[in-house]
Every structure is written in structure tokens, then in C-alpha cells.
Amino acid sequence: MERKNIELVKQLRHGLHQHPELSNHEVWTKQHLMEFLQTHTTLELVDRGAWFYAVYRAGEKKKNLAFRADMDALPIDETIHLPYGSQFPGISHKCGHDGHCASLAGFALEVDQQGAEHNIFFLFQHAEETGDGAIQCSSFIKENNIDEIFAYHNMSGMPFQSVQVIEGTAHCASKGMSIHMEGTPAHASQPETGVNPAFAMAKIIDSIPEFTSSDKNKGLVLCTVIQVDVGEPAFGVAASKGQLLLTIRALYQEELEQLQNNIEKLALEQAKKYGLKVTFSFQDVFPETVNHKESIDKVREVSRRKGLHLQEMTEAFRASEDFGHYTKLTKGAMVFIGNGEQYPPIHTVEYDFRDELIETAVELFKGIAKV
User: Fold this and answer.
1) Residues 351 and 94: beta-carbon distance below 8 Å
2) What pTM, to 2 d.p., does this model score?
3) Cα 205 to Cα 231, 270, 343, distances in angstroms
4) Homologous superfamily, domain 3-170+289-370
5) How do residues 162-184 score in pLDDT, each as one tens digit?
6) Of 1, 65, 258, 342, which residue is least crowded by CB atoms under 10 Å?
């Protein structure tokens, strides 16, 4: 990677870090990235509202390769001292999406200056953290006949600048599930005259170990209780309303759906037993992210050719990634670049993206673009 480009995108990364924006609010971030590419490249830019992409055209009969970066930050205070620290209280780039964007912008600089053998699409996606972004951007795949798409995520607990790959599922599928139950209130001295949802909710919670048992599932299945909210803090009134928040997660999409069906079925049975009204709602919905072997093989080949430290992962990440929406539509892969084995984990206050990863990512992407 050209030294001048490295310094330019480091400055870009630090500017993005100072101006973090939450999912679906990446207005300044998007505009700043577009202005950067307009100033420093001749690439075609396509504005799609909440997101955008840039294009390098090599020719009509060339392959269409896409590379994606996510733009959003997290609702976490910046408590460590950085010369480019977050200027917005309660919001910071504690997942490294500022680094992902800087890496993709650096890759765009190099392609614009040096050319490429294929048509290259640089996708800057919003709202990865909430799972809203990729599903909104997924039309991009068919509209541009994308043959293959790649992305990377920085990860702690892995050797510094190592390239980590895994075939098949790389990230579990997950979703936030809310169960709302409503009965009728009663005086606390006469609970039999009302309808209390507490017992039904307790039954659902008690059944979680059975639903997630490894004896009944071929892959990892998890159900995490996030919140139990039943009744009001008034000792004279029996509870009549309640809400149970769960995060359900599975290595395989079909087992996530089966877990959801089991919980819904039990909730409906309990509602009928106790005379309750029950409704369900969902948010933060992520598909499983599945890597294609052909795409991972390209990453392996490029890593070996460029002398990058390549390691094979033995299991998928439990945490989810909305990149899976793209690999349901075309070939592709999510790969990981190590922050260091002892480096603070992402989503923690001690974390900051390591600028050295930018060049590793750009060189990896450049190599893939030539395969």
C-alpha cells in the first residue's frame, strides 16, 4: 500500500472516530466518506440514501466483485484518552467500523490509482449493529450482478494482523424476541379474582434448558433471558401485565426457527391455560453468515502469496453479523483480522481500532481483486 495513502486513510479513520453515529443515523459519516472519495478518486459514486457505493469500471465482460464496510458506532462512552476521541457523549466507535470504512476507502484509493482486472464495487453500509443495514442494501447484489462479495472484521483474541478464515457458518443467526402477556388485575389479597402472567412466564423461562439442549440440536442453540418485567411495584395489586425479552441464537438458521416455534407454541399454550392475551415482536434480526468455500479459498491463496499470517478457525462466532444477507444471494466471505491475543475486546470501553490493520486489509482486498 502506498505510504501517502496509508497516512491519508489514517487521518480519515481518526476523523470518523471523532464523529461516531448510531445505526440509521450515519448522516455525517456517509457524507464525509463520499466527500473523501470525491476529493481523492475519480470513482463513480452512487447515493442510495442511508448508504452508498463507489464503482471502478474495468469493462462490461469483467467480473463484478464487491467489498463491504459498515459505518455505525455504539452507545458506549469514550472513557479512554485518545487525541481523536469521540466528540459525542455516550457514543463511540467501539467495534471498529471506523477502521473498516477507512480500510475500504484505502482500497478504493489504491484501485483508482493502480487499476484492477475486475469491476470493483465499494459498498459502505449503514446499521450493521441493529441488523437493519444489509437487508436494506441487499438489492445492490442483484442490481449490479455481483459475482462475489467480501468483508472483514477486526477481532481481539487473535494474533496481531493474522487473517482468520472459516468455511460454512462464520456467525450465528440471532434475533431479539419479546413476549407480551396481559391478564386482568386484582387486589393482592384476592389473587384468584385476577389473571396473573407471572406463572406462564416462569414456565417459559423454566423450559429454556430443554429447548436449547445439545441432545436435541445438531449445532449450538442459545436462549438468553434479557429482561423479565411483570406487574407494578405496588404491594396491594396483583400483576396483570408482563413482558419477557429473550435473545435467541443458533449456529443454523433452521434451528433458530425451531427454537422460536417452540417458545411461541409454549407461550400460546400457557396463555390459553391461564386466560391471557399474548403477542410476539422481534428486532435485531440477523441471519446466519455462511462463507462459501470458493471465496475462502481465494482468501487462503492471497494470504499465502502475500505472506500474511493465515489461520484456520475451528468454530463460528456466537455474535451475529448481517453480512449473511449478502451471502444468501451470491458467493462471498467474511474474514477476520486479529487485533492481538491480549488486546481489549470489541464492544468494551478500553477498545480502539488499531490503525496497522488498515494496510493488512487493503493488501488482502487487493490480492482478492486480482484472483
Assistant:
1) yes
2) 0.95
3) 17, 12, 36
4) Zn peptidases (3.40.630.10)
5) 999 999 999 999 999 999 999 99
6) 342
